[in-house]
């Protein structure tokens, strides 16, 4: 009974979906891409990714995107270009001249005017490509030789930090009354542009083994879980239980395409739907997740292992050098746990036989070095 | 076979509906296409403005508006 | 999809297939339609199908959706079929499948990839303009042109003395258009606003622009312009960059003619009538986006909050629970609009105050303004201090405005179609649930097997398909 006269169709206030921020973490590990070059060259991956980003931007008027490269020796912003890394000297020297218009002036001025391209798309593309080529130029052979893996943990943290910042920027007008001055300042801004933001992270991963970054990645996963940011994983090559668990814990999509050549279709179908659309869709990846952890000492997937009580690192055997945890170097004596285990099996109820085996041990071993045989 | 009839759906109270039916019957059933239920009738799209107008005048005739007691502060 | 673009969608849906096909030749048009016309789920479906080599089988599509997403799926597919974006077909084994129309798919791909040589996203001028204008100038130009139009409509009704002079600032073409759209009536040189006009004035700016442009579109054929040309030009305008000058050399004669009209509305700016360049204003670039939030400015910099719309969204109205109204404004237009439904008493340099009374509300209702419009206007322009509470307006005030209206108007009318004479209960249930999922159902009576819908096109399409399948 809102409208007494039905002639006003226009007044219906149907709110569109909230804008969505997509943070893409692109694994640019040259070692792994070299392996893939026969099926999916890196250039075509970038091309597909750009189309995917454009599709994302087109799917909602307020949609935003951020792209981070997780390289072998550093995690680097591809889009948007951070101001400070451009050239700190430059901004220092010209501080007085372009004070107010800093953001505009630093925008890459060389974006070619292309009448065949929607301008926001062109901006992202230009930014991404130029930042990436400069990243490659700065990569020396010594960097590559140093490690065969990629800094996914750092890139994830960057993405999370950026999302946190963007969410703050988009949060609706603060209803709290802590600061009346901020309320006055708000009178200039419009409420329409301040709608909550939904965010998600997409990791395009090609590197296999990430166990050396177990701690940073796990911490990022927990942060994402807490902030309700789904982490989607597109695994083009290699396999890590770590990322599988990341998507499972945060409610993201996990896909390991059998044919990486069809990357674009996987992206469009599986990863484009945002939080609003996902509510109506059946998303892939709910299937069998391998919850088993890989041990940190030999990188074997274990059914039962030993867990460091400080950093939760997992080991497949109790013989640690010097009784120190390999990851966090805290004192860790696992031998006591190993001997205690058989005696405890009988004592615990049948149902919880394996799971509950460990926790009863602390009294038996030293407080600092207690450990928990784990079954996951 | 399903049929679609073009018209205007009028939603109103039972009392108003009675008045509308009255107007209709006095004007040779020129307004109403179908009596749907206690609170709804289907009216010819072209006649709706005229029907509303007649209802207004009828209400004015029959209902005495209470004196507008608009207290201005 | 928002209120402003939904009326454009309503218009688009009614176009015939040939027009759609021609429209979809331009990637910029396709991208704009995709961005702002389609429901969210429809976008997802289109993107899923865009790079799919084979038709999308209906069973697979259904499997993709959750059971409780059925309603949204049907609605999305109905819109897509209506716009001739997706075609359904049956193969030899009577399996239903969906494909994208070739033209649409090709153009959308070109838009996403930036390929092709269609040059549909506007050709920037290569010659530097000696009288280059700044963005603040464009903002001011758009705002003043648009407010002139609104003021011309409202001015005489509220009896402002200088209304006739203000009318001079509005071009004859614009006046004729307002008349054609039945927003105003001119009798004896006096301008009076109509019910549709009030609806128009009380809308937000973006919706106003679209309303006017749709009237323009409907009258384009009479002026010898092709609808497709006009539409694609409008959609192209929506994808341009504010503050950039674009060349007129690549435009068609129709589009050149349009430029003149559009500059009268304040949608584009030209330094002179025969200038070889034009600048889109904020009104143009936000045509296909509601907030203009898809800005190309660096997102790491502060958000584009301050630079949103020229005059909309700056809240200035405070309503108290005792129906008193304070509006921090000195704009004659806003005062004029407020005086349509408020009893204004005092005016200060930056503030007017008044009261919402039964008298003022019923007068507004008699003029054809609905309570919903009043409430929507007050909400849209609520002062930031008011916006701290949810809802923005005191509920007592909104309820009372509605009650005042119901005293005057005792009937509620909806134009549409009554569906009757269903053969069986199952048929009735089936069509009813389809109507419900489309959101067009207004009323139903299960025992008589009757229901009423406000749009019938998609339902009749559905019935036809059903018949052909049996």
From TrEMBL, chain A:
The keyword Metal-binding applies. GO terms for cellular component: transcription factor TFIIH core complex; transcription factor TFIIH holo complex. It comes from the Eukaryota. Residues 82-104 have a biased composition (Polar residues). Residues 79-116, 351-376 are annotated as: Disordered. Residues 356-376 have a biased composition (Low complexity). It holds the Pfam family Tfb4. InterPro entries: TFIIH_Tfb4/GTF2H3, vWFA_dom_sf. Keywords: DNA damage, DNA repair, Metal-binding, Nucleus, Transcription, Transcription regulation, Zinc, Zinc-finger. It is found in: Nucleus. One of its GO terms (molecular function) is zinc ion binding. GO terms for biological process: nucleotide-excision repair; regulation of DNA-templated transcription. Belongs to the TFB4 family. Component of the 7-subunit TFIIH core complex composed of XPB/SSL2, XPD/RAD3, SSL1, TFB1, TFB2, TFB4 and TFB5, which is active in NER. The core complex associates with the 3-subunit CTD-kinase module TFIIK composed of CCL1, KIN28 and TFB3 to form the 10-subunit holoenzyme (holo-TFIIH) active in transcription. Component of the general transcription and DNA repair factor IIH (TFIIH) core complex, which is involved in general and transcription-coupled nucleotide excision repair (NER) of damaged DNA and, when complexed to TFIIK, in RNA transcription by RNA polymerase II. In NER, TFIIH acts by opening DNA around the lesion to allow the excision of the damaged oligonucleotide and its replacement by a new DNA fragment. In transcription, TFIIH has an essential role in transcription initiation. This is General transcription and DNA repair factor IIH subunit TFB4. The lineage of its organism: Eukaryota, Fungi, Dikarya, Ascomycota, Pezizomycotina.
From TrEMBL, chain B:
Its main location: nucleus. GO terms for biological process: nucleotide-excision repair, preincision complex assembly; transcription initiation at RNA polymerase II promoter. Keywords: DNA damage, DNA repair, Nucleus, Transcription, Transcription regulation. In NER, TFIIH acts by opening DNA around the lesion to allow the excision of the damaged oligonucleotide and its replacement by a new DNA fragment. In transcription, TFIIH has an essential role in transcription initiation. When the pre-initiation complex (PIC) has been established, TFIIH is required for promoter opening and promoter escape. Component of the general transcription and DNA repair factor IIH (TFIIH) core complex, which is involved in general and transcription-coupled nucleotide excision repair (NER) of damaged DNA and, when complexed to TFIIK, in RNA transcription by RNA polymerase II. In NER, TFIIH acts by opening DNA around the lesion to allow the excision of the damaged oligonucleotide and its replacement by a new DNA fragment. In transcription, TFIIH has an essential role in transcription initiation. GO terms for cellular component: transcription factor TFIIH core complex; transcription factor TFIIH holo complex. Component of the 7-subunit TFIIH core complex. Signal peptide: none annotated. InterPro entries: TFB5-like_sf (IPR035935), TFIIH_TTDA/Tfb5 (IPR009400). The keyword Transcription applies. It is found in: Nucleus. It holds the Pfam family Tfb5. Gene3D superfamilies: TFB5-like. Belongs to the TFB5 family. It comes from Pleomassaria siparia CBS 279.74. PANTHER family: GENERAL TRANSCRIPTION FACTOR IIH SUBUNIT 5. This is General transcription and DNA repair factor IIH subunit TFB5.
Automatic annotation (TrEMBL), chain C:
GO terms for biological process: nucleotide-excision repair. GO terms for cellular component: transcription factor TFIIH core complex; transcription factor TFIIH holo complex. InterPro entries: Tfb2_C, TFIIH_p52/Tfb2. GO terms for molecular function: ATPase activator activity; double-stranded DNA binding. Keywords: DNA damage, DNA repair, Nucleus, Transcription, Transcription regulation. Pfam families: Tfb2, Tfb2_C. Residues 399-463 form the Transcription factor Tfb2 C-terminal domain. Component of the general transcription and DNA repair factor IIH (TFIIH) core complex which is involved in general and transcription-coupled nucleotide excision repair (NER) of damaged DNA. Component of the general transcription and DNA repair factor IIH (TFIIH) core complex, which is involved in general and transcription-coupled nucleotide excision repair (NER) of damaged DNA and, when complexed to TFIIK, in RNA transcription by RNA polymerase II. In NER, TFIIH acts by opening DNA around the lesion to allow the excision of the damaged oligonucleotide and its replacement by a new DNA fragment. In transcription, TFIIH has an essential role in transcription initiation. Belongs to the TFB2 family. This is RNA polymerase II transcription factor B subunit 2.
């Amino acid at each position: 009974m809102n409208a007494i006269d039905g002639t006003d169709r226009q007044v219906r206030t149907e709110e569109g979906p909230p804008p969505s921020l997509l943070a893409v973490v692109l694994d640019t590990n040259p070692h792994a891409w070299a392996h893939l070059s026969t099926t999916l060259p890196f250039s075509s991956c970038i091309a597909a990714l750009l189309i995917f980003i454009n599709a994302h931007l087109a799917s909602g008027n307020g949609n935003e995107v951020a792209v981070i490269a997780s390289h072998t020796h550093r995690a680097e912003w591809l889009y948007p270009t951070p101001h400070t890394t451009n050239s700190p000297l430059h901004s220092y020297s010209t501080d007085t001249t372009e004070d107010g218009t800093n953001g505009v002036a630093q925008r890459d001025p060389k974006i070619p005017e292309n009448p065949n391209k929607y301008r926001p798309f062109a901006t992202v593309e230009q930014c991404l490509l130029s930042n990436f080529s400069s990243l490659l130029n700065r990569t020396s052979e010594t960097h590559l030789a140093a490690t065969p893996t990629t800094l996914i943990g750092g890139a994830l943290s960057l993405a999370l930090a950026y999302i946190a910042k963007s969410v703050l920027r988009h949060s609706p007008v603060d209803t709290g009354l802590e600061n009346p001055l901020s309320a006055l300042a708000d009178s200039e801004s419009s409420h329409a542009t301040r709608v909550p933001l939904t965010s998600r992270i997409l990791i395009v991963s090609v590197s296999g083994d990430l166990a050396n970054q177990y701690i940073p990645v796990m911490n990022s996963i927990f942060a994402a879980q807490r902030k309700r940011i789904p982490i989607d994983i597109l695994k083009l090559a290699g396999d890590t239980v770590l990322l599988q668990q990341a998507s499972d814990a945060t409610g993201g999509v996990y896909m390991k395409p059998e044919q990486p050549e069809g990357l674009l279709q996987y992206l469009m179908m599986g990863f484009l739907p945002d939080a609003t659309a996902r509510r109506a869709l059946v998303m892939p990846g709910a299937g069998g997740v391998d919850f088993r952890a890989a041990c940190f000492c030999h990188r074997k997937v274990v059914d039962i292992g030993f867990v460091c009580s400080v950093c939760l690192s997992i080991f497949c055997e109790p013989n640690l050098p010097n009784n120190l945890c390999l990851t966090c170097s805290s004192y860790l004596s696992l031998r006591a746990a190993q001997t205690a285990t058989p005696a405890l099996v009988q004592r615990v109820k049948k149902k919880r036989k394996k799971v509950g085996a460990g926790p009863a041990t602390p009294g038996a071993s030293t407080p600092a070095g207690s450990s928990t045989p784990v079954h996951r | 076979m399903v049929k679609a009839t073009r018209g205007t759906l009028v939603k109103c109270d039972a009392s108003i509906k009675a008045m509308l039916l009255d107007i209709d019957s006095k004007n040779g059933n020129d307004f109403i296409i179908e009596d749907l239920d206690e609170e709804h009738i289907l009216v010819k799209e072209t006649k709706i403005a005229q029907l509303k107008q007649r209802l207004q005048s009828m209400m004015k005739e029959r209902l005495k508006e209470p004196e507008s007691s608009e207290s201005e502060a | 999809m928002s209120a402003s673009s939904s009326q454009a969608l309503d218009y688009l849906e009614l176009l015939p297939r040939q027009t759609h096909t021609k429209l979809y030749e331009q990637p910029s048009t396709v991208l704009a339609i995709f961005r702002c016309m389609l429901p969210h789920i429809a976008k997802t479906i289109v993107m899923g199908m865009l790079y799919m080599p084979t038709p999308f089988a209906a069973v697979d599509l259904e499997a993709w959706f959750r059971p409780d997403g059925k309603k949204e799926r049907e609605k999305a597919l109905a819109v897509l079929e209506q716009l001739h974006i997706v075609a359904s077909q049956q193969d030899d084994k009577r399996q239903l499948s969906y494909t994208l129309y070739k033209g649409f798919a090709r153009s959308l791909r070109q838009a996403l990839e930036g390929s092709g040589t269609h040059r549909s996203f506007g050709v920037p001028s290569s010659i530097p303009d000696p009288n280059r204008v700044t963005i603040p100038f464009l903002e001011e130009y758009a705002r003043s042109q648009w407010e002139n139009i609104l003021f011309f409509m409202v001015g005489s009704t509220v009896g402002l003395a200088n209304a006739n002079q203000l009318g001079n600032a509005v071009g004859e073409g614009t006046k004729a258009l307002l008349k054609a759209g039945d927003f105003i009536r001119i009798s004896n040189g006096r301008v009076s606003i109509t019910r549709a006009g009030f609806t128009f004035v009380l809308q937000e700016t973006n919706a106003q622009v679209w309303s006017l442009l749709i009237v323009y579109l409907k009258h384009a054929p009479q002026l010898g312009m092709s609808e497709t040309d006009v539409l694609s030009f409008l959609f192209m305008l929506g994808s341009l960059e504010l503050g950039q000058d674009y060349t007129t050399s690549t435009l068609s004669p129709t589009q050149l003619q349009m430029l003149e009209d559009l500059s009268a509305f304040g949608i584009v700016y030209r330094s002179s009538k025969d200038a070889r360049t034009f600048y889109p204003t904020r009104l143009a670039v936000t045509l296909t986006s509601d907030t203009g939030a898809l800005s190309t400015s660096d997102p790491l910099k502060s958000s584009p909050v301050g630079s949103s719309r020229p005059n909309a969204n700056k809240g200035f109205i405070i309503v108290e629970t005792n129906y008193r109204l304070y509006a921090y404004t000195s704009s004659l237009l806003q005062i004029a609009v407020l005086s349509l439904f408020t009893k204004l008493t005092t005016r200060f340099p930056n503030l007017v105050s008044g009261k919402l009374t039964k008298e003022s509300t019923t007068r507004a209702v008699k003029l054809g303004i609905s309570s919903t419009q009043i409430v929507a206007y007050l909400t849209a322009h609520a002062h930031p201090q008011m916006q701290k509470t949810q809802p923005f307006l005191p509920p007592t005030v909104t309820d009372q405005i509605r009650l005042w209206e119901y005293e005057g108007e005792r009937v509620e009318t909806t134009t549409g179609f009554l569906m009757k004479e269903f053969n069986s209960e199952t048929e009735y249930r089936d069509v009813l649930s389809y109507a419900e999922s489309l959101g067009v159902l207004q009323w139903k009576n299960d025992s008589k097997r009757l229901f009423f819908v406000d749009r019938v096109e998609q339902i009749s399409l559905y019935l036809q398909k059903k018949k052909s399948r049996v």
